[in-house]
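look at this fold:
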Amino acid sequence: MTTDALIEELRATEGRRLRALVARDMQAADALHADDYELITPAGATLSKDDYLGQVASGEIQYRVFEPVSPIAVRSYEGAAILRYRVHIEIEWDGGGEKVDLWHTDLYELRDGRWQAVWSQATRIR
């Protein structure tokens, strides 16, 4: 696979992951997140895959919008890739909600022939 094709595959994979979270398509979301996935939230909390996807599945976290607002930059290495981009999120949760712009960084690894998110970190843009 060429470098350009790999970059486009990773961008498309990230797009599928974001759409799955907004749609609460838990089957797709589960497949796109590694079992040892961890999210660092803008508030600095760490969520495991089970915690994060469990909150999405239950509706405790409801993404209304989760869209890149900048190109997704990709750096790939053998079996791993880092994606970084600005994102606009509109989110609701029990007792609140907000519209926010963030820097989002994801580490993907190629596992069993498919790309899966392993780590994500979201940083609030003020």
Summary: The longest helix spans residues 3-23. The chain has one domain: 3-124.
